[in-house]
Amino acid sequence: MRAATVAMRRAYVPYSKFQVGAALLDKDGAVHYGCNIENAAYSPTNCAERTALFRAIADGHPAGQFQAIAVIGDTDGPIAPCGVCRQVLVELCAPEMMVIMGNLKGDWSIRSVAELLPGAFTPLSLHKEEQG
């Protein structure tokens, strides 16, 4: 959560002023920071979780080999990834990987990727079974 807080302070949020940070732990113990980055057009905005994941992939770390991700924001309860981030987590992380969600008050919750998006659309969903 400390690393996620460091990332949160780097957020670019001139419109919402709502900072979110994420810290992704890879299999080698390295931490990849992510923060939300807004855009005046809104749809190009990128969440902290996706920033951390995309950065790790761009830095050469293979999908599916991350250990955990911590996410923090200034919210009443533990912050949770949005639906788009949950879908990206399903694609790039193991189903059992832990997502640690917290807030600045010290509240936290932990769920697996699979728990955050049950019945997820996965790469396997793209393949039709051979019909004979």
UniProtKB/TrEMBL annotation:
Substrate binds at N36, I37, E38, N39, A40, A41, Y42. One of its GO terms (cellular component) is cytosol. GO terms for biological process: nucleobase-containing small molecule metabolic process; pyrimidine-containing compound metabolic process. The active site is at E49 (proton donor). Signal peptide: none annotated. Residues 1-124 form the CMP/dCMP-type deaminase domain. Its cofactor is Zn(2+). Keywords: Hydrolase, Metal-binding, Zinc. Pfam families: dCMP_cyt_deam_1. InterPro entries: APOBEC/CMP_deaminase_Zn-bd, CMP_dCMP_dom, Cyt/Deoxycyt_deaminase, Cyt_deam_tetra, Cytidine_deaminase-like. Its EC number is 3.5.4.5. It catalyses: 2'-deoxycytidine + H2O + H(+) = 2'-deoxyuridine + NH4(+); cytidine + H2O + H(+) = uridine + NH4(+). One of its GO terms (molecular function) is zinc ion binding. The keyword Hydrolase applies. Transmembrane segments: none annotated. Zn(2+) binds at C47, C82, C85. Belongs to the cytidine and deoxycytidylate deaminase family. This enzyme scavenges exogenous and endogenous cytidine and 2'-deoxycytidine for UMP synthesis. This is Cytidine deaminase. It comes from Paenibacillus soyae.
